[in-house]
Amino acid sequence: MKKYVAVSLLVCSFMFAFAGLAGAAEKLIVIITPAHSNPFFKTAADTSEAKAKELGYATRVYVHDDDANKQNEFFDIAIADKASAIILDNAGADATISAVRKAKDAGIPTFLVDREINETGTAAAQIVSNNFQGAQLVAEAFVNAMGETGEYVELLGLESDTNAGVRSQGFHDVIDQYPDMKMTAQQSASWSQPEAFSKMESIIQANPNIKGVICGNDTMAMGASAALKAAGKNDVIVAGFDGSNDVRDAILAGDILATGLQPIARIAEMAVEQADQYIKSGSTGQSEKQLVDCVLITKDNAANVDNFSLK
Amino acid sequence: MMGKRFSVVNILINLRIFIALIVVFTVFSIFVPNFRTPATLVILVKHVAINALLTIGMTYVILTGGIDLSVGAVVGLTGMIAGGLIYEGVKIEAFGYILYFNVWAVMAVSVVLGALIGYVNGFLITRFSIAPFIVTLGMMYIARGAALLRSGGSTFPNLTGSPERHNTGFPLLGAGTFLGIPYSIWIMIAISAFLIYTARKTPFGRHVYAVGGNETAARLSGVNVVRVKRMVYVISGIMSAIVGLIVSSQLVAAHPATGEAFEMDAIAASVLGGTSLAGGRGSIGGAIIGAFVIGIMNDGMVMMGVSSFWQRVIKGVVIIAAVIVDQFQSEVQRRAALAA
Fold first, then answer.
1. Which residues in chain A are closer than 8 Å to B259, comparing Cβ atoms?
2. Residue B180 Ramachandran class (φ > 0 left, ψ -120 to 50 alpha, else beta)
3. In chain A, which among 61-90 make CB contacts under 8 A with chain B?
4. Hey, are the CB atoms on A192 and B257 less than 8 Å from each other?
5. What domains does chain A contain, in order, with CATH numbers?
6. Which candidate from A38, A187, A223 shows the least CB-CB separation from B308?
7. A206: nearest CB among B34, B47, B298
8. What is the spatial distance between Cα B207 and Cα B193, in angstroms, rounded to a whole number?
């Protein structure tokens, strides 16, 4: 019995010693994003991690799977770990506010990337791509390719996600100015490739005369494009949003017309740089809300796209 | 007199899944233009095939009184394994050589993997007497995690293969047709015919029902309960693997999140088709028709332009209504038995 006590005490002391060493050596930046199965979020996480390491921070990367409760638990862990800053691609514009405030009260600044929250003055920075402007760019290219007339379909993102709504507004802000452009179907495919594929197959049957499909993100554009190919409708125009490598290749192959590149890699780096500045000086030196413009990607510049940045 | 009236009610209720099928089909035929065209019906059946295959495996499992929650995750994992083998091959470090399998071998590897995962499910359930819900829930997380680990979360794109690697032809599984009907539908027809026959006419099929009806009685009358239970999870695993291959072939890409919540549609179709979650009661044929009802509702609502919020609500209402009718049926049958 005594032996066990002695051994466990020894083990415990080692653990504390190591924990102490790790804590003393480097300041910690915690990175929380949605699931890495979407290359967009993986790039956000990987780029922030690389930048933070480059600036000499320890990092911890968590995935909240768009679950605000899980995200809240990661905030608790980050606070317990005495993190110096949190980089967050959040799980909901309203559901995230309390977690960010909790971190602020514990003296930890949060830097939001990609998605905003519905409150100002709580996060240290909110750096997002200009989804509205990007959607307008894509819609302009889409309308031109359609010859300003014809039936088209819109595939929406997850309806609970703010960006899905903002992009749809951006699309319609442009398209609705052309009275000959007729939207014959509008469906949510939840950002998902298989869902976009099967819904597109059904929509093609209901609307055989469609000339174009405009999609809230690239994975849905890939699904829609595969369905159109399977139906032998190779001349239907497809447009996406995000600027992923998969869609870059599809644009080069002529399967997809255009996409709006969100410079998420640059956004993630900016967030970490500002976090570094904040940790050192107590201020980012920037306004809280920062919009980064999207870039239209077509056949002309697609070859220069890699991992959500334009070379 | 009483008995006769009950038997008419009984027949109507026994046919309820057919009636449901006719009702949904008629409703959408009226409200959706182009719904009854051959091309739409082919696409509809193609969508149903994916859920129907999973439903067949799920129904075998449920008939023994079990449940398989790992189905969707196994779809994702087997698709990723096939995609990986085609896209990047197998690196053999010692020779600095990359080995590419031909498409048949790739598909065989995936199906064997699906069977193996099913066997592990069945082994854990029978060897350690753990509830199937728990074992397959754990396996769901393991398989999904493994699918994400396989590629670090990214997609294996463009699975067309290349002639110099001798691995072309994978997209044909999803896009190819025979007599104008996609392969996936032929696969569904062949597998349903075989597994309906197995459930109804073979000793194994009868043992499945016996184990679900009364496990102790089955054991005492000499049924190898352990073997039957392991076998049904193997069937479910194989079905998941086949679906994994079909889905990634249709998309010409393998994505690790593929198959999320597929198990829920399979359970719903099985229950709609009259399978009792307690085991021992139900039929493969009924479950397949259940899959058709769900498939027609999904596609019909998309073609009608119903918002995805309402699509979920309506689907939920239909599933619950089906179970209420199911309870009603047991009650009627019990009373009919008493009256006779």
1. 194
2. left
3. none
4. yes
5. 2-127+264-291 (3.40.50.2300), 131-261 (3.40.50.2300)
6. A187
7. B34
8. 19
Judge: A37–B153 Cβ closer than 8 Å, yes or no: yes
ipTM for the complex shown: 0.71
Asked if A142 contacts A173 with a C-beta cutoff of 8 angstroms, the reply is no
If you measure CA to CA, which chain B residue comes closest to A35? B153
Q: A198 and B47: CB-CB below 8 Å?
A: yes
Q: How many CA atoms lie within 13 A of A5 on its CB side?
A: 2
Q: Are A181 and A150 in contact (CB under 8 A)?
A: yes
CA distance B61 to B233: 6
pLDDT digit string (tens) for chain A, length 311 residues: 566 666 666 665 555 555 444 444 589 999 999 988 788 899 999 999 999 999 999 999 999 988 888 898 899 889 988 999 999 999 888 889 989 999 999 999 999 999 988 889 999 999 999 999 999 999 999 999 999 999 999 999 988 778 899 999 999 999 999 999 999 999 999 888 999 999 999 999 999 999 999 999 999 999 999 999 989 999 999 999 999 999 999 999 999 999 999 999 999 999 999 999 999 998 888 899 999 999 999 999 999 999 888 88
End-to-end CA distance of chain B: 10
CB-based contact, A307 to chain B, within 8 Å: no
Burial of A288 (0-12, 13-18, 19+ CB in 10 A): middle
Domain B36-323 has CATH 1.10.3470: yes
| Contact between chains at B250 and A42 (C-beta distance less than 8 A) | no
Any idea where the domains of chain B sit in the sequence?
A: 36-323
A252 touches chain B (CB under 8 A): no
Cβ-Cβ contacts under 8 Å, B256 against chain A: 37
The C-alpha atoms of residue B116 and residue B235 are separated, in whole angstroms, by 10
**Cβ contact, residue pair B253, A35, below 8 Å:** no
